[in-house]
Design goal:
The protein has 324 residues and is mainly α. The protein contains 16 helices and no strands. The protein has helices at 3-35, 46-51, 55-61, 67-75, 84-97, 104-118, 127-151, 156-183, 194-206, 210-216, 223-232, 240-258, 264-279, 282-288, 290-313, 317-322. The longest helix is centred in the N-terminal third of the chain and has 33 residues, at 3-35. It is globular.
Length: 324
């Protein structure tokens, strides 16, 4: 790739990731707010910080992990690079660089969305308004996805946009699952209880997967069924298996259709993930540690990002990881 195209490809890749990240962060906050309505969940807001490995950054800015501090940190805090407003700002900066390549509709929608976030105040993130705010963020991100689908020219840039979207989506699906297992690990007596079922229900709804799940499992809801659905179901668009399969196909088509050199190591990493996804049942994964399995997936998805950056954007691994 020419250096100019590599720069554009990188901007497209990260614009997609930042928008997908903002949407998924809204989903995580929304589902956690649902969990916090019981007394045990109300104590676990620090878990979101831990889930995103932001403990050091958070504790330098806030003294305690109250609901108000954590939500402010992840929604309005412009000094936090992992907040929703920062993610959309980064997407907008990439979109500005991409003005010759993207449609006017894409640019306008990101601008309007960013300005809407800047206009938010403390009352907008109050507990009774948080679900409404998360819905607004999700709808704006989905509008971006729809406008991009309908207006973005289908060349190499489209493939890099899809790569960024599916890599981020796979990573965030593992984090959503981790919230239930890592932060609200049920007591043995709670498994199968109304509280347990309602929390799994919330996880599915946060991934927009409740109705799809019910088509596969019309009756009953077990932890194994939900985890297996979100990890392995090949027809659910947010499952890790579906996202990884899409990434594999996109890398293959970049190589075959556009004769791009590089990317072989990224394809090998994807093969490793696919082999791991196909080799174990969800019951076996839960028995040996779902949290550890999700951690392994996240590390390997990060490695794929690093290899794509090296192959197509001219980045060294440390630089690629620093951008996340």
């Amino acid at each position: 790739m020419s250096s100019l195209l590599a720069r554009y490809a990188e901007c497209i890749f990260w614009m997609a990731r930042y928008m997908e990240r903002a949407e998924n962060l809204a989903r995580i906050l929304d589902v956690h707010e649902t969990f916090s309505r019981d007394t045990r969940g109300a104590k676990n807001w620090m878990s979101i910080v831990q889930l995103n490995a932001d403990e050091k950054r958070f504790l330098t800015r806030y003294q305690s992990a109250t609901a108000q501090n954590v939500v402010n940190f992840y929604v309005l805090d412009t000094q936090n690079p992992t907040s929703i407003v920062s993610a959309v700002r980064s997407a907008r900066e990439n979109a500005r660089t991409l003005r010759p390549l993207i449609s006017t509709e894409m640019w306008t929608q990101i601008n309007v969305f960013y300005n809407r976030l800047l206009a938010l105040g403390p009352s907008d993130i109050a507990p009774h308004n948080l679900t409404r705010l998360c819905s607004m963020v999700k709808e704006a991100c989905q509008a971006h996805t729809g406008i991009t689908e309908g207006t973005f020219y289908r060349d190499q840039g489209w493939y890099f946009y899809q790569l960024g979207k599916y890599l981020e989506r796979a990573d965030q699906t593992t984090r959503l699952l981790d919230i239930k297992y890592h932060t609200l690990l049920p007591f043995a007596d709670d498994v199968g209880s109304a509280l347990d079922v309602s929390q799994w229900n919330a996880v599915l709804r946060s991934a927009a997967g409740y109705h799809a799940f019910r088509r596969v499992y019309p009756r009953g809801m077990t932890p194994a069924a939900v985890a297996g659905f979100m990890l392995y179901n090949e027809s659910f668009p947010r499952s890790v298996t579906t996202c990884v399969r899409q990434i594999d196909g996109l890398l293959v088509r970049l190589k075959s259709r556009y004769m791009l050199k590089g990317g072989s190591v990224a394809m090998e990493r994807i093969d490793e993930i696919q082999a791991a996804l196909h080799s174990r049942s969800v019951e076996d994964v839960i028995k040996t540690g779902l949290h550890e399995y999700l951690d392994w997936l996240q590390l390997h998805l990060n490695a794929v990002t690093s290899e794509i950056s090296k192959a197509y954007f001219g980045a060294v691994p440390a630089e690629a990881m620093a951008e996340q």
